[in-house]
Amino acid sequence: xxxxxxEQILEAVxxxxxxxxxxxxxxxxxxxxxxxxxxxxxxxxxxxxxxIDIEIKPGTKNESVHIPVILSESGMNDLVYNDFYxxxxxxxxxxxxxxxxNCGDQKSQHDGIHTFHINxxxxxxxxxxxxxxxxxxxxxxxxxxTVVEMEEGSFCEMEMVQIKGVDSTVRDTVAHLKANAxxxxxxxxxxxxxxxxxxxxxxxxxxxxxxxxxxxRSVAKDSSTxxxxxxxxxxxxxKAHVQCDSIIMDSAHIRSIPEISANHNxxxxxxxxxxxxxxxxxxxxxxxxxxxxxQAEEIIIQCFLK
Amino acid sequence: xxxxxxxxxxxxxxxxxxxxIDNVSLNLDDGKFLVITGPNGGGKSTLAKLIxxxxxxxxxxxxxxxxxxxxLDITERAKLGIGYAFQQPPRFKGLTVHKLLSLAHGSDLPxxxxxxxxxxxGLCSRDYLNREVDSSxxxxxxxxxxxxxxxxxxxxxxxxxxxxAGIDLWSFNMLVESFRSMNKGFGxxxxxxxxxxxxxxxxxxxxxxxxxxxxxxxxxxxxPHLMGEFDEGCNFRGERQ
Lengths: 306, 241
What we know:
- With about 300 residues, chain A is mainly beta.
- In chain A, about 10% of the residues lie in helices and about 55% in strands.
- In chain A, strands 1, 2, 5, 6, 8, 10, 13, 15, 17, 19 and 22 form an 11-stranded mixed β-sheet that branches.
- In chain B, strands 6-7-8-3-9-10 form a 6-stranded mixed β-sheet, sandwiched between helices. A 4-stranded antiparallel β-sheet of chain B has the order 2-1-4-5.
- The interface of A and B includes residues 279, 291 and 293 of A.
């Protein structure tokens, strides 16, 4: 039975209005409440630990799998292992995401450990959104770990978004790329109040002609704290670009530490990082279109994190 | 429709006041096309910013459609139908051209209408609608998009600050034509310009130098006085030879 709160969370974290088309697994408060496999995407619960295996058959095209998680009970501590096996030549969309609705005074925590095995020439687009809400004083904590193993010629685009309302997060992402694999990570994060966020990434470009692009955009409001530590490691002829871009507001703190390292003389790796407040001319421009400074600020942030 | 009454604007320069605009009075009637020209640093952009509300005058009054707007902020003036195209428009990460034009218009602007505005400023619209107004665009492109945002609004008074800056010759021709047809529309237009061809679109002209109005009158009255002050690129230098 999907409640009104569940519906709101599903919409926020997975853009879902009701049950999704295609394969899905909906997890609520540590239990699966709905699951569907399709001919090409088979979801099996793990027998040794909490979580699921998602097997996508080779050559599967234009299919999607949704695996949203809802935490609506205060005091929940949910740890889950989800393993994705994406078959050779498949082209799929995977939508994950977790929403916490905490009305109580105890902390609610979800730690999702996602491992992707992306086979040769497969293409994956992965979208993960994190969101917290609820009037309770209990903390909303999300600590995702993402491991990506990319075979030759595979492509993966990961959009990882923290919308709002997450009190504490530590994100760990590790990827290994074989020859001709390409990884694009787009991380977008907003913190407010006293929230803390840390994102560690390590992208290992092991194969010849592998490439990676890491774009991290964030907005830190109020007295929140953010730390970004993306690393690109070139172990072969490869290309990588790391970009961290943050808007700082109020009395927030941001540390951005992009690291690049090369263990091969044909590795080309570039990083750039910027932290700054909203440009006054941007505000003025939007105000000359009839917006108040608050509306202008909202539009600037919305677009920046779009 | 617009009346500036004894407007002065000064800033503090190492403790002593520096007059940027010095007791300027100026009238603009409804439906008129005014070109303001004059040497760099003479106060033209400051005057435009004072009308838009980006700067506040040290003294004097601004009357718009019979109402004293001196105390109104930028947002309130924008809502009355005043618009200003920046000389150096800011860039926005993540904001698409389509979204910016829609924000300017006040509601979602259909693609074909966006395209019409972009074509007016010499941009091939299909290529631009979904592009972000960020550093991936050249200075000239951002400038042209800025002009299009004003055209997408229904304004009583549109102020363009050196619209020709950074625009290539072909686009400049398009732009001149757009300004020419705009003049037949609704409301008044002020263009700050050094360009002879833009000046020739004017009903009226004002020459501003050293924070004062040096000359004011119709195109026919003022323009002949400016001859000899253009360089070989038809740009007005404001220095008599």
